[in-house]
Amino acid sequence: MRLNLKDKNRKKSVGFSYAWNGIVEMCKSERNFRLHLLATFLVVIAGILLCLSKIEWMILIVVIGMVLVAETTNTAVEKLIDFLRPDIHPMAKIIKDIAAGSVLIAAIMAFIIGCILFIPKLYHIFI
Ligand SMILES: Nc1ncnc2c1ncn2[C@@H]1O[C@H](COP(=O)(O)OP(=O)(O)OP(=O)(O)O)[C@@H](O)[C@H]1O
């Protein structure tokens, strides 16, 4: 059955509201996600104060997005595993550990890029 334009737009906005629900759920139930949001807020304030350039902002936004996406995907994997296999199982452990590894990789990358962006600017201010 073919959807007309109105139906397609309604479907898109419903899909967006489900996605927004997911983000709200992350904020409510995931402490790590809230910590990442707090870190994002602090980094954005630091970026404003240190007058990052356009390209530096673009890099920072991509890196912040990478960490938040990794954390969200990790939580989705955790919840899926808990739903499918609530008991202890070696494969459940491996899957969860790998998903957690993706967050760690993203966080390390973000830390390194944060150092590259901010340390020279702080150096000029304080030294
Ligand atoms: N069903 C399971 N079987 C075997 N090991 C598990 C299982 N569930 C969790 N684990 C182990 O415990 C670790 C933590 O899993 P858990 O689901 O508690 O994540 P979490 O501590 O809530 O993670 P986060 O802090 O990212 O939300 C996993 O990485 C895995 O090593």
From TrEMBL:
Substrate binds at residue 71. A divalent metal cation binds at residues 30, 78. ATP binds at residues 18, 30, 78, 96-97. Keywords: ATP-binding, Cell membrane, Kinase, Lipid biosynthesis, Lipid metabolism, Magnesium, Membrane, Metal-binding, Nucleotide-binding, Phospholipid biosynthesis, Phospholipid metabolism, Transferase, Transmembrane, Transmembrane helix. InterPro entries: DAGK, DAGK_sf, UDPK. Pfam families: DAGK_prokar (PF01219). Gene3D superfamilies: 1.10.287.3610. It is a multi-pass membrane protein. The chain crosses the membrane at residues 35-52, 58-77, 98-119. Its main location: membrane. The active site is at 71 (proton acceptor). Mn(2+), Zn(2+), Cd(2+) and Co(2+) support activity to lesser extents. It is found in: Cell membrane. GO terms for biological process: phospholipid biosynthetic process. The keyword Transmembrane applies. One of its GO terms (cellular component) is plasma membrane. It comes from the Bacteria. Its cofactor is Mg(2+). GO terms for molecular function: ATP binding; kinase activity; metal ion binding. Belongs to the bacterial diacylglycerol kinase family. This is Diacylglycerol kinase. The lineage of its organism: Bacteria, Bacillati, Bacillota, Bacilli, Bacillales.
